[in-house]
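To: structure desk
From: M.T.
Subject: fold request, one chain
Message: Could you run this one when you get a chance? Sequence is below, nothing fancy, just the single chain.
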Amino acid sequence: MIILLSILIVIIGMLFGKYGANYGLKWWIYYPVPMLMNILLPPIILKMGLKKTILYLFLSFLSAPLIHIFFSFFWGWTEYMPFWSVPHIKTIF
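Reply: Done. Structure tokens follow.
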């Protein structure tokens, strides 16, 4: 179940965000869909209790900016948080 969730959320969610932005979807479509997949699917599918769900949500919101920084800086994928600008590594050097 973890592998299926990982594929669905990480791979499909990231590709939807990346290519949704590139093909002209509005940010309010390509940004919230992967975010909602990440927030809603694991607690529902893994049948987490209230305490685990709260901890999961806290860690999800804490890690989102770190993921954005990583992909924006190293690969130039700025679509994950379109309202927060992080320069690509090639623009620095």
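Reply (cont.): The first helix runs from residue 2 to 22. Let me know if you need anything else for the meeting.
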